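cron nightly-structures :: item 1 of 1
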Amino acid sequence: MNKSLNLSTFIGCESSYKEAEIVLFGVPFDGTTSFRPGTRFAMQEIRPDSFGLETYSPYLDKDLEDAAIFDGGDLELPLGNTAKAMDQIHAYTREVLQDGKKFLMVGGEHLVSLPTIQAAYEKYPDLHLIHIDAHTDLREDYLGEKLSHASVIRRCHEFLGDGRIFQFGIRSGLKEEFEWAGTHTYLERFSLATLMEKIQELKDVPVYITIDLDVLDPGIFPGTGTPEPGGITYRELLKAIEQMQQLNQIVAADVVELSPPYDPSGASTAIACKTIRELLLTLTA
């Protein structure tokens, strides 16, 4: 586990591991991507691009300079062995949690959320999941493979169970996935309109937040592996993160599915950077 200061960090994340309350780390894995790969390169672009941001968020009236955040760099994962990669992500995340810290993980494809959510669940058995995404991610398998970005939330349900998963912005998936969600998860199609209502219900329980950036409309966020027209605006996503300040037990979060090669303008990377800043500050609440 890397506990040393890094030469390259996300802006405002220069605390030592020992003094940090929050650990930021990258997971460069896109081994089950079914359409356009490239999310493994996300943090390579995000860290240097983050210095185009200020550490202060005018949305939340908080500053990264006032927080103790350690950037642990990117995990080194084996190529071609998905199960082993998931085990290594889980082990790293579990150690961070055992050390009494929160974390923000940056993918990578969405499958990398599975081991981090599982590690959080092991520490917080009453864990609830807020899932913001364009896709249901509820397939039983994808072409016979259960460890897939298309089935990550279904795998999470296997340990979280009914009544613990809240999905928003969903606009793509098999008919069977939407039907399955009808009896096993809370799923809002197309928007985040009921998020605040559910936040009030989850106010005092442990919550993990997973944000797949393809929830955004590809007109403003083209840099992703599976773009899905009809998405939300970035201001809507910022408002959702502002609303999350009312949650009293956010234990961890992740941001996934930035694929920089598909947006050479850099706009998608800038959006990812700002989202990470806002979530880091949310974890300080």
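cron nightly-structures :: done
The two ends are 26 Å apart (CA to CA).
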